Every structure is written in C-alpha cells, then in structure tokens.
C-alpha cells in the first residue's frame, strides 16, 4: 500500500489516446504535472486539444518522445515520477498480421514500460490499461464462469492468434505485466479492465477509432435490417478515466478492476439512440436473425467469422463491477448519455 505524492510528475503513455485524453484532463484539473509520452512531440496539430485543456486548468503538461517498441524510450518521461499510467496499446479488430499488429506492440510495449519502471527508482505504482478481453474471449465463456458471471478472478483461455487475436493480445500483455511485477518489490501494479468504451472523444479526429466504428453502423444504414443479438458490456470513457485516477491515487487500490457500467445487448444500444435520433437516422428497431448474420457477417467484416458468430450471437455478457464500486467508489453515468454524445460527435464530423 503506497501513497503517491501529488507534487511529483505523473507519466501517461499514449497520452493522445481516447481514454488517455480524459485521464490527462482529470490529472490537469487536479493540478498535477503530466509527463505525456507521445510518438511525436512536434506534431502540434495532434497535441492542440491537450494544450487547450492545460491552458484552462491548474496543472501542467510536458511532452516526451517515446515509442512502445523501442527499449529505453520512456526513460526521460518516467524520470522523477512515482506514478505511471500505461494506457498505450492498439485497439483494432481487423488486422492483416495479428502477431505484428497486435501481439508484439501489446506485449513488447508493456515489457518496455515496466522494465523502465524497474530502472526508475522513483516509481511506486503502475496503473495498466488492460481490458475485459483479458478476462473472457467469447460470450460462450460465461457458461464456464463460476456463477455464470465474469469476475476479476477469471482469465481468458479461449482466444488465440487465429480466433479473437485482439483479446489474445490483451491477455498476453496483462499476464506479462503481472509476471514482471511479481519479480520485483519496488512498485505495485493495479490493472483496469474496461468493457467496450463509449462516449465523446476530447479530440474530434478520434471519431475514426475502433469504438466509434462499432457505433457508426447504427446511423449509416448498415444495420437498418436489424441489430445482431449480441451481449455487450459498456462503460463511458470519462468513467474509465476516473477509474484510472482512483486506481492511481487510492492507497489501498490493488489487483484487477472490471470497469463496466452496463451488461446490455447491441439492440438495447440502438433503443437508447431511438428517442433522439430515430426520426432522422436508420437506427435499427429490431434484431437481425442469426441465420442472416451467419450469411452476411463474414462478408461485411472478416473478423466476424462463423466461429465468432456461433460463440457470441444470442449469448449474454454478464460481468460483476462491484469491486470497482466498493473499492474505487465508481458511479457509472447513464448509458443513454454516453451513446447520444458519441453519436452526435459522429454526426458533427460528417461520418453519419
């Protein structure tokens, strides 16, 4: 149990990311000095949204060049930091080479950041952004979960390089983090396992990210015949940022935390958008039959394989978020609010 000195700088890897942007905003609002590790500190256009926040908050932001796959590249950014937030990791589902595009950056990146923590004497705690994908691979895994509920005690054993490679990469990266943590006594590891992250982005150009691509078909007509019956976990991006903050500064935070506001269904996400947007946009009103998904899924998106369909469609997602509520004092915002604000951002950016 370690107490973090708020007068010391705090490192955020992948600082221009979707979740990281809101985390940086929270840290700056609390008056902290943020060491923002980014690929290119000279890209003023990409950093202007963080700069605007810094100008209007009591905190301070300093940029450092760093590359996930480059050993030692976080040394300068981490110097003097007691707390490290490692949020940088790829979130893509449609990739040509899963080993190159997912496994290597997730695993090697985690190793590079944590090995640097071992070499930086000031570091007391690392908060790692993982995913519920490290807990389960398919909704069918729920059948083997104790009490048919996903909890922090469970690990994903059904994903592989060939099936659900993104989930596999998150599992390998988090296991690597725990392995490195257990081999040292200097710093503590706290892990955040969010479900599908939704809600508005600080940087409007991020509406091309994977989370937004999942919501876009509700409005662009691709799902006008119906939404697949798919169980989902959802959480607002601002709640994920809050969970990181609490995990970083609450002295007794420990282990893994499922950060998920709602166990819901894809069709219920559509229903949440209906009142505000149903008249103007082709938001699905009914469920698409499984046989049609079986037929069309692999054509629409090659990541939607027949194996994926059989192990996920028609099956619920049920996760227990009570540890986050009890220990991190999480108070999840309404699903409708998150989805409506996200959908509006897609409209504002001409993507719907």
From TrEMBL:
Every copy of the NAD-dependent epimerase/dehydratase domain together lies at 10-254
SUPFAM superfamilies registered for this protein in UniProt: NAD(P)-binding Rossmann-fold domains
What superkingdom does the record give? Bacteria
| The UniProt record lists the keyword Oxidoreductase | yes
Identify a single GO molecular function assigned to this protein.
oxidoreductase activity, acting on the CH-OH group of donors, NAD or NADP as acceptor
* Coiled-coil annotated residue ranges, if any: none
Which keywords annotate this record? Oxidoreductase
InterPro entries, alphabetized: Epimerase_deHydtase (IPR001509), NAD(P)-bd_dom_sf (IPR036291), NAD(P)_dehydrat-like (IPR050425)
Supply the Gene3D superfamilies for this chain: NAD(P)-binding Rossmann-like Domain
* PANTHER family associated with the record: NAD DEPENDENT EPIMERASE/DEHYDRATASE (PTHR10366), VPS9 DOMAIN-CONTAINING PROTEIN (PTHR10366:SF812)
Q: List the protein's name.
A: NAD-dependent epimerase/dehydratase family protein
Source organism per UniProt: Maribellus luteus
């Amino acid at each position: 149990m370690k107490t973090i000195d708020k007068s010391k700088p705090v490192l955020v890897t992948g600082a221009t990311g979707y979740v990281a942007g809101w985390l940086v905003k929270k840290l700056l609002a609390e008056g902290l000095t943020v060491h923002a590790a980014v690929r290119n500190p000279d890209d003023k256009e990409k950093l202007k949204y963080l700069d605007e926040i810094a100008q209007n908050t009591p905190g301070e932001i300093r940029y450092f060049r760093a590359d996930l796959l480059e050993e030692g590249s976080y040394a300068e950014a981490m110097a003097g930091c007691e707390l490290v937030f490692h949020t940088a990791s790829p979130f893509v589902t449609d990739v040509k080479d899963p080993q190159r595009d997912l496994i290597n950056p997730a695993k090697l990146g985690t190793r590079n950041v944590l090995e640097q923590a071992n070499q930086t004497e000031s570091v007391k705690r690392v908060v790692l952004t993982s995913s519920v994908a490290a807990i389960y691979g398919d909704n069918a895994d729920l059948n083997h979960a104790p009490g048919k509920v996903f909890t922090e005690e469970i690990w994903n054993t059904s994903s592989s390089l060939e099936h659900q490679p993104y989930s596999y990469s998150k599992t390998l990266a988090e296991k690597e983090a725990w392995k490195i943590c257990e081999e040292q006594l200097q710093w503590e590891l706290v892990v955040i396992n969010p479900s599908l992250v939704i809600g508005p982005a600080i940087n409007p150009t991020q509406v091309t990210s994977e989370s937004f691509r999942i919501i876009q078909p509700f409005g662009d007509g691709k799902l006008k015949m119906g939404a697949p019956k798919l169980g989902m976990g959802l959480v607002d991006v601002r709640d994920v940022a809050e969970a990181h903050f609490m995990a970083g500064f609450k002295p007794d935070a420990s282990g893994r935390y499922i950060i998920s506001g709602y166990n819901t269904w894809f069709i219920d996400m559509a229903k949440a958008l209906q009142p505000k947007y149903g008249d103007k946009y082709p938001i699905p009103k009914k469920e698409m039959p499984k046989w049609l998904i079986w037929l069309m899924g692999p054509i629409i998106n090659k990541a939607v394989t027949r194996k994926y369909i059989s192990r996920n469609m028609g099956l619920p997602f049920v996760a227990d978020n009570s540890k986050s509520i009890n220990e991190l004092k999480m108070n999840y915002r309404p699903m409708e609010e998150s989805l409506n604000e996200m959908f509006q951002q897609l409209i504002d950016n001409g993507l719907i």
